[in-house]
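Hi support team,

I'm filing this because I wasn't sure whether my run with dioxothiomolybdenum(VI) ion finished correctly. The job status page said complete, but I'd like someone to confirm that the output block is well-formed before I use it downstream. Pasting the exact inputs I used:
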Amino acid sequence: MSKTSNINRVDGFAKVTGSATYSAEYKTAGVVYACLVGSTIAKGRIKTIDTKKAEWAPGVLAVITHLNVDKPAGYEKAKDKHNFGQPLQIFKDDSVLYYDQPIALVIADTFERMRYAASLIKADYFKEEHSTELKKAAEKEKKVETDKGNDYHRGEHDGYKNAEVILETEYTIPTEVHNPMELANIIAKWDGNKPILYTKSQGVEGTRRSVAGVFGVPVEDVEVHAEYLGGAFGMGLHTWPYEIAALIGAKKLNRPVKLVLHREQMFTNVGFRPYTIQKMGLGATKDGKLTGLTHEAVAMTSGYEDFMEGTVNMSRFIYDCANVSTRYRIVPLDTCTPIWMRGPGEATGSFALESAMDEMAYKLNLDPIEFRKLNYAEKDQEQNKPWSSKFLLECYEGGMERIGWKNRKNEPGSVKEGNWLVGYGMGTGTFGCYRSPTSVKAKFLANGDLVLQCSVNDMGPGTATMMTAIGAEVIGLPSENVIIEMGKSGLPKGPTQGGSATTSSVGSAVHDACNLLLNKIIELGSKNPVLKGIALTDLTFENGAVSSKKDKSKSVTLAALLSSNKLEDFEVENLSKAAEEAKKYSIYSFSVHFVKVLVNPNLGKIRLAHVVSCADIGTVISQKTSAGQMFGGAVGGIGMGLMEALEIDHRFGRPINNNFADYHVPVNADIEKQEVFFVNKKDPISNPMGTKGLGETALVGMAPAIANAVFNATGKRVRDLPITLDKII
Ligand code: MOS
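And here is everything the job wrote out:
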């Protein structure tokens, strides 16, 4: 990918000039404005809901509640209501399952009238006792929900207990909220019985399936547009009540309905990283060989949907260890359903594992990297398979050199710069490399441009840029001549953008479709009189023409080829899938974040003086967008490490800090010096380009790297995120 690996983000210009169209920005004739009114209790039933004043307010077109809703046809058919992925059955009955659960939809002819009318709705409730505190709920409910397949044991159960040196610790991660810049938003309309959605979704096909299920219509009848996303981080991986509500409203009025959540509703109605309590047990020999590792996690889910993630999974394979046990439980609370948030599970799990590894290294008086190298896994012991490729040691080396690890001292608080205590820390990350079946259409236009089509979204990582880079490289075109069409239904089916799998899935499909296009255009060229008789293997497509490899004078341009065949363009569509061979290997990306913090011992202020993020992600397709992912992931990790926590007032089961003044999110300027290092070695197994995936590993390991650096600076071990000033002075 040499020629194209540094191309600019192809959607960059549209995004920074405002010409990119986000869901709520589509020009739609006759659009009306809607909002959701939420419950003011966390659990119970609606006794009365007074909508009269709102209905009589100027410009109001409809007020929909459980009392007057035309229930979507799929509500009756829904199976086990706890099945994850099934959206909350909004307005189904009088029950309230969480604070701010939508209890009414107000639609008016202008935005202002809609907001005013919504303020007039009043409800009374039969209150029931709610449960929003994981610590309490986990203690009280002995029999918690469990993912039965998820208990794992290798060797002796809880074998760490028999070790020479034992560490037992507990860590908590509070609820964190995605909070992308773009609010959740939709324009919903119907064409007869066919729903049309312009919505903030990370998966066009997934949204089609869930909307089809709710409304009882064929999947092919659901039209979804999500061409640009202003960030999502995982919140777009589920269909939420606001989308269903807008569709219900649009159907009732037979008009397009626009609904944009308020920032406060982003904290209550579109998922979040679940509050999680983790217990670690580590056992080692005195000279630093891990002999046992137990990782247990208890996480919250909602009362109506069982959400689970891979919190303990990394502990099963990342280090060489004979005796490993992992357990994972979920406990229902009276909240909205949690959802994957960048590096889902693994980011949470890595905080516990990589903090515990650091604590054990101190106990053994070993350098934390030395300790990790002593326990380097030569193969995947969980799956008993070889790695497809693993350049984790290169990440350690690359990071140590760049951060200046040699300046670190194992004794906490022993390095100073002026009045500031200096600390160095690191955290390892990993994420599986997945590849979903993906269809891509590749098309030559008469002017030589290449069009690539796939329904996959680009929520910001640079998917369109990656597709451009691969298409340009395979066909041998300048990247300016590649046109990407994506993010809507009706295009060849792509995967949901999630799980760091988009480049492996869609990139491979682009690669395969472009190679097929080359073969087919050469085949077409071979029938042209100019090239007649030349073997296919002696023909090539270069500089917009099919030519003989041996005699360059024998050449037919693409334009001539199309016109002689009376074609306006020339296209192929191809479905691309993982090779069987890949199943023999364990395929993971690896990352290591290195952090240098400065801590003011009097004020507790923590500065991120230097961050170096290293990753083995196989081949790097686009240096710029990959580096952007890595920078953004590290910055997200500062939020996790130092700032973010959704505070709940458990007396009422509602959030306190549901705004940007009180819920702090990090920005790029929070890191004073930031570097990214990619090993950039092709994985021989993963896919034709040898990529492995990046979006999640960009975050996994960052929070523990900060916590470990803070310990190195201060001697204070913070096991409950975020690390706020009060916890270290
Ligand atoms: Mo990612 S949490 O799969 O958007």
